[in-house]
Write a structure and sequence with these properties.
- By secondary structure, the protein is of the alpha/beta class.
- The protein contains 19 helices and 20 strands.
- The protein has helices spanning about 5-20, 40, 50, 65-70, 70-75, 110-125, 140-150, 210-225, 255-260, 265-275, 295-300, 325-340, 360, 370-385, 410-425, 430-440, 475-480, 485-500, 500-505, and strands at about 45, 80-85, 85-90, 100-105, 125-130, 160-165, 185, 190-195, 230, 285, 310, 345-350, 385-390, 505-510, 515-525, 525-535, 540, 550-555, 565, 570-575.
- Helix 14 runs parallel beside helix 18 (about 485-500).
- It binds alpha-D-glucopyranose (GLC) and calcium ion (CA).
- Calcium ion binds near residues 54, 55, 58, 60 and 62.
């Protein structure tokens, strides 16, 4: 090789190295320019263990129950399971109040069961992401027991205390407290402790380096067992200004502005990344992502070495009791997409254990349209850029609980708010209407396995009632029906897995002002897919400007999908552009 050719190769190589990774509007995505990661290409299936499958007849779902359904989970085609908390807990908030981070909740089983579950998932090529609940612990955690025992206890600074001789602390809003007061007076040491959630969920003091070390060691304990990721519960609230300045009156209506992304939050995340996350092949996702796409971006910009992906609420928050505007929906998803088009990574979801059911909230759960709309929403979630999260039961098109008596509800938030509303003399029938649509319990009724008693969830009495529609909506019936929501879910999951363009491809919104349909293209390496979704219960025309003669229909949620630009009620179709 002559010296000149060698120099040219060096220059070309160096230029190649400094060319920005990622892609821009002008340069459509190309496979070679992608920073490929397993967690970007994964589809996450969320399991709420308490309601998934009961193995011992006590009415509560458990780890052995999940193990007995591993083949079903595998059959979905998903890659990752995210388990809601399974650690020891007195269950004030169904496991989001942890009393021992290194043990398994008695209701759910033993550490041996956990090891068997992890192995069972890994044997099937499925990864496991665990909830990490460290904005707060349970008040029954040993740390808190020590902390409250005396002002001089070495654990005192594990939590936030305000000594009563200083007077009442500046008001802090609590999401779950009966009085919405986040300071709880404890006469034992004549002081108040802080709890953003319920009284039984005292907030940990992240300013204390000992707390951080304890948490990082505990994360290593689970990572060493071989788990594949952490979902950081409510972590956006973990850092506080511990001088506790007064907030303006009425701040609670926008509490996230005052609570999220405060103080040294990014510093703590960088430390967590350095001490734990960077040392394992694990994915990390933050629940809540601040107040703007920019906040979210700062959590997951790879150059900052914090977390992998953001899980932002603006999209899921759009649906209200009276419905929602598709124009708003499109605007929000397109805006979030554009902030993450170059850098960072998003989660794509419309439901979880804190929301009402996907089809009841974003689709149409009437018998006529339930199936079509559930499939249409699955098509949306599986064709956006970002990692899709699907909540257990939504793959069947399970619907809201239909509870109309307060005694049917179990959720601490729903029940405490009921007491609060009562105490202020509110119109309780209005509140009952509200929770019928909004309560988190809507998504927590037992998984509907079959048409036998209690939907095959338990042989005992379920901890929360089974939805009455289980005789018609259940996995066993859907298995047998090739056109069921379940079988469409499997098809659209496989379609995403087979089309890398749906993971990384450039997204472009079409027909922006159409209030009835959502159309977009995804493009990668010359391959271009067109997705068209009708969000209404009537025929709707799209005006994408694309010559439909030059397209090929690939998949749709109707038995005979549309091959043109008019869609039937809740129709979803994907075309390839020739
Ligand atoms: C998160 C969880 C929710 C829980 C809360 C307190 O928002 O998703 O279920 O109640 O944090 O841990
Ligand atoms: Ca059980």
């Amino acid at each position: 090789m002559t010296k000149r050719i060698f120099q040219a190769i060096v220059i070309i190589t160096v230029l190649g190295m400094i060319t920005p990774r990622g892609y821009s509007q002008e340069h459509p995505a190309s496979k070679d320019s992608l920073n490929r990661k397993w967690w970007k290409e994964a589809i996450v299936y969320q399991i709420y263990p308490r309601s998934f499958k009961d193995n011992n007849g006590d009415g509560i779902g458990d780890l052995k129950g999940i193990i007995s359904k591993l083949d079903y989970i595998k059959s979905l085609g998903i890659d990752v399971v995210w388990l809601n908390p399974i650690y020891s807990s007195p269950n004030d908030d169904n496991g989001y109040d942890v009393s021992d981070y290194r043990n398994i909740m008695k209701d759910f089983g033993t550490m041996d069961d956990f090891d068997a579950l992890l192995k069972g998932l890994h044997d099937r090529g499925i990864k496991l992401v665990m909830d990490l609940v460290v904005n707060h612990s349970s008040d029954e955690h040993e740390w808190f027991k020590q902390s409250r025992s005396s002002r001089t206890n070495p654990y005192r600074d594990y939590y936030h205390w305000w000594n009563a001789e200083q007077g009442k602390p500046p008001y802090r809003y609590s999401l779950f407290d009966v009085n919405h007061d986040a300071w709880r007076y404890d006469s034992l040491t004549n002081a108040y402790y802080l709890h953003y959630f319920s009284r039984k969920q005292p907030d940990l003091n992240w300013e204390n380096p000992k707390v951080r070390t304890e948490v990082f060691d505990m994360m290593k304990f689970w990572a060493d067992k071989g788990i594949d990721g952490f979902r950081l519960d409510a972590f956006q609230f973990a850092a506080k200004d511990t001088t506790f300045p007064g907030f303006p009156p009425g701040f609670e209506k926008h509490f996230s502005k005052y609570y999220a992304m405060q103080g040294n939050l990014h510093g703590y995340l960088q430390e967590m990344n350095k001490e734990v996350l960077s040392k394992y092949n694990v994915m990390s996702v933050a629940e809540g992502a601040g107040n703007t796409p920019e906040d979210a971006h700062n959590l997951v910009d790879a150059d900052r070495h914090e977390l992998n992906m953001a899980y932002a609420f603006e999209g899921v928050d759009i649906a209200k009791r009276g419905g929602y505007s598709l124009l708003h929906f499109k605007e929000v998803f397109s805006r979030w997409h554009s902030t993450f088009a170059e850098k960072g990574w998003l989660s794509i979801f419309l439901a979880n254990h804190d929301q009402a059911r996907l089809v009841s909230r974003f689709g149409n759960d009437s018998p006529q349209f339930r199936e079509a709309s559930a499939k249409m929403l699955a098509t949306f979630l599986m064709t956006m850029r970002g990692t899709p999260y699907y909540y257990n039961g939504d793959e069947l098109g399970m619907t809201n609980a239909g509870f109309d008596k307060i005694g049917d509800f179990r959720d601490v938030q729903t029940l405490n708010e009921y007491k609060h509303q009562q105490s202020i003399g509110a119109d309780m029938s209005k509140y009952m209407h509200q929770i019928a649509f909004e309560s988190r319990d809507n998504a927590r009724t037992p998984f509907q396995w079959d048409g036998t008693a209690n939907a095959g969830f338990t042989t005992g009495t379920p901890w929360i009632q089974v939805n009455k529609n289980y005789t018609s909506i259940n996995a066993s019936a859907e298995e047998k029906d090739p056109n069921s929501v379940l079988n469409y879910f499997r098809k659209i999951v496989k379609f995403r897995k087979d089309n890398l363009v749906l993971v990384y491809g450039k997204y472009k919104l079409l027909d922006k002002d159409n209030p009835d349909t959502y159309s977009y293209t995804r493009e990668l390496d010359g391959k271009k897919l067109l997705v068209m979704l009708n969000f209404t219960n009537k025929n709707a025309a799209t005006h994408t400007g694309i010559d439909m003669g030059k397209t090929k229909m690939l998949i749709g949620n109707y038995e005979h999908p549309s091959d043109n630009d008019t869609l039937r009620a809740y129709e979803a179709v994907i075309f390839e552009l020739k």
